[in-house]
Amino acid sequence: MSLTGFIKNEINIGKTIYPPGQDIFRAFQLTPFDKVKVVILGQDPYHNPGEAMGLSFSVPKSVKIPPSLRNIYKEIQSDLGFDIPGHGDLTHWAEQGVFLLNAMLTVEKNKAGSHKDIGWQTFTNAVIRQLSEEKKHLVFMLWGNFAKSKKDLIDGSKHLILESAHPSPLAGGAFFGCSHFSKTNDYLVKTGQKTIDWEIR
Questions:
Q1: CB-based burial label for 91 (10 Å; 0-12, 13-18, 19+)
Q2: Residue 84 pLDDT
Q3: Is 34 a catalytic residue?
Q4: What is the spatial distance between Cα 75 and Cα 46, in angstroms, rounded to a whole number?
Q5: CA 138/CA 134 separation, integer angstroms
Q6: 102, 123 contact by CB (below 8 A)
Q7: Which candidate, 130, 131, 110, 108, places its Cα nearest to that of 118?
Q8: Strand pairing of 107-108 and 17-18?
C-alpha cells in the first residue's frame, strides 16, 4: 500500500492523524529545495491535538511551547542573547531557508512513533541524500541519537554537520552550550551566504 493509501485508510477507519492533511508537506512548501540553507531534523510530529503543523519542533502560536522547543529557545538566548518568545511558531525560520524536516511526516493521535515503519523514512532519507548531493554549504543540525543516525546520508566534506544531544529535558541539559545557532551563522558568512535571523518575535 502507498503512503497516501495507508493514511487515507487510517482516517477512513476512524483514526486521527496529525498534522492535518494540508500541513503534511508544509516544510517543503515554506522552504523549497532551492532556498534550503539549514536543515533541522526532527523525528516525528507532535502527537497531541493541535500541536503538529508540518514543521519540526514548531507549534501554532495558540499552543503552549513544548519542553524541547523551550530548551531550544533557552540555548538561543544563551548563544545569541535573544529574549525567549511567547509562542512556538517557527515559520519565520522556515521562510529564511531553515528546512524543519521530520523524518516521519505523520503520526497517529497520542501514539508517538506510530508511523515510523510505513515508508516515510525511505522518502525523507532520499530528501536528505538529494540535498547533500545537489547542494553545497548547507548546515545540518543533528540533535539526539536518532538524528545523528542520518549522518551517513550527508557529505561532510561539503556541508557543515553540527551534532548535539537532543533538546528534550530527558537529555538532562546536555543540549545546552552547543552554540549551533551562532556556529551556523558563522559558517553561512564564511561561505558567502546570508545569515539566519533566529529571533522569533
A1: middle
A2: 96
A3: no
A4: 21
A5: 11
A6: no
A7: 108
A8: antiparallel
Residue 158, CA atoms < 13 Å, CB-side half-sphere: 10
Catalytic residue chosen out of the listed positions 44, 83, 186, 197: 44
CA-based R_g, the chain, Å: 16
d(CA 129, CA 57) in angstroms, rounded, equals 21
pLDDT in tens, 109-136: 999 999 999 999 999 999 999 999 999 9
Q: What's the confidence (pLDDT) of residue 4?
A: 87
Mean pLDDT for the stretch of residues 37-54:
97
Q: Report pTM.
A: 0.97
Task: Determine the pLDDT at residue 1.
Answer: 73
Amino acid (1-letter code) at residue 25: F
To the nearest 10°, the Cα dihedral for 30, 105, 109, 201?
-30
User: Reduced to 3 states, what is the DSSP secondary structure of residue 18?
Assistant: strand
Give one word for 74, left, alpha or beta, with left for phi > 0 and alpha for psi -120 to 50: alpha
How does pLDDT run across 79-107, given as a tens digit for each residue?
A: 999 999 999 999 999 999 999 999 999 99
